[in-house]
């Protein structure tokens, strides 16, 4: 009696698999976000050092906050007009204003990297979307908070005002929170489907 062997259908195909177009796009996006993260972090550190130590005319503080290469604009002063303690507060405010952007870029890079590996509906991705949402909440409230601190330490007398970016950031945070909830539900449905026999 002749035995005919059947091929192992569960065996993975030999050789390296070519990444899909979606994976290539996510990898490129993760790389771009990584570069943007590094550039933003270096800019924040450089600006903080400039606030602390630079006394030239190219960095001025006035209506709307810090201005780079703005010239002798009305109502603005160079950083040497402030005391050392005020400049230390200025450093803290610069880092406060830049921290949400750095955090958002970092979390978005991690999310794109997870997408490039096929992990689209998972608890990690849902948590990443929630972190980005909280980052946009911080991005919305950082400017008025920094402005209030600047008023308290005598760096400005301008009243606090809200810009359109405040409401736009909060709206984006709400949408990302909803997307995170949808992602978590989709992940739970996918796990139920995989466990169904």
From the structure above, extract its key features.
three-stranded antiparallel β-sheet; mainly alpha; 65% helix; 197 residues
List the helices and strands and how they pair.
Elements: H1 21-53, E1 59-62, E2 65-68, E3 77-78, H2 84-116, H3 123-152, H4 164-195
Antiparallel strand pairs: 1-2, 1-3
From the helix content, strand content and strand pairing, which structural class follows?
A: mainly alpha
Q: Could you state the order of secondary-structure elements as H and E?
A: HEEEHHH
Number of helices: 4
Q: Which sheet architecture does the biggest sheet show?
A: 3 strands, antiparallel
Q: Per the principal axes of the C-alpha atoms, what is the gross shape?
A: elongated
Rounded to the nearest angstrom, the radius of gyration is: 25 Å
| Straight-line distance between termini | 36 Å
Overall pLDDT confidence: 83
How would you explain this protein's 3D organization?
With 197 residues, the protein is mostly helical. 65% of the residues lie in helices and 5% in strands. It has helices at residues 21-53, 84-116, 123-152, 164-195, and strands at residues 59-62, 65-68, 77-78. Strands 2-1-3 form a three-stranded antiparallel sheet, with no helix packed on it. α1 (21-53) runs antiparallel to α2 and α3 (123-152) runs antiparallel to α4. The mean pLDDT is 83.
Brief overview:
This protein has 197 residues and is mainly α.
């Amino acid at each position: 009696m002749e035995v005919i062997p059947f091929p192992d259908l569960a065996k993975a195909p030999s050789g390296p698999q070519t990444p899909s177009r979606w994976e290539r796009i996510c990898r490129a996006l993760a790389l771009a976000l990584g570069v943007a993260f590094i550039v933003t972090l270096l800019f924040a550190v450089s600006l903080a050092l400039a606030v602390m130590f630079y006394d030239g005319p190219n960095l001025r503080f006035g209506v709307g906050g810090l201005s780079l290469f703005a010239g002798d604009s009305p109502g603005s002063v160079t950083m040497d007009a402030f005391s050392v303690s005020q400049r230390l507060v200025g450093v803290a405010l610069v880092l406060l204003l830049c921290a949400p952007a750095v955090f958002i870029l970092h979390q978005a890079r991690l999310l794109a990297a997870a997408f490039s590996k096929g992990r689209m509906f998972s608890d990690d991705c849902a948590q990443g979307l929630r972190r980005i949402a909280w980052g946009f909440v911080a991005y919305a409230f950082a400017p008025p908070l920094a402005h209030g601190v600047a008023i308290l330490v005598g760096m400005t007398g301008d009243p606090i005002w809200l810009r359109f970016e405040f409401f736009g950031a909060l709206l984006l945070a709400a949408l990302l929170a909803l997307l995170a909830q949808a992602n978590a539900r989709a992940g739970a449905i996918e796990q139920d489907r995989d466990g169904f026999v």
